[in-house]
Amino acid sequence: MAKVEVDKEKCIGCGACTAVAPDVFEFDDDGLAKAVKNEINDDVKNAAEGCPTEAITVEE
Ligand code: SF4
After folding, report:
1. Which end of the chain has fewer CB atoms at under 10 Å, N or C?
2. What range defines the domain where residue 10 resides?
3. Residues 31, 13: contact at Cβ < 8 Å?
């Protein structure tokens, strides 16, 4: 089953993932990103690749 996770220890809240894949990534109350769906598409893959701190894990 698909799984999308943000490691909050690594996330710096830059907003790249929420801009690239807003249907899957949202800012949490702490100002860091969280995945709101375990859905993998090209936008999610691009967000994971584009994360500057490699905080996003995508498992298909
Ligand atoms: S792109 Fe990475 S560092 Fe930036 S908000 Fe998303 S998870 Fe956090």
Report:
1. N
2. 3-59
3. yes
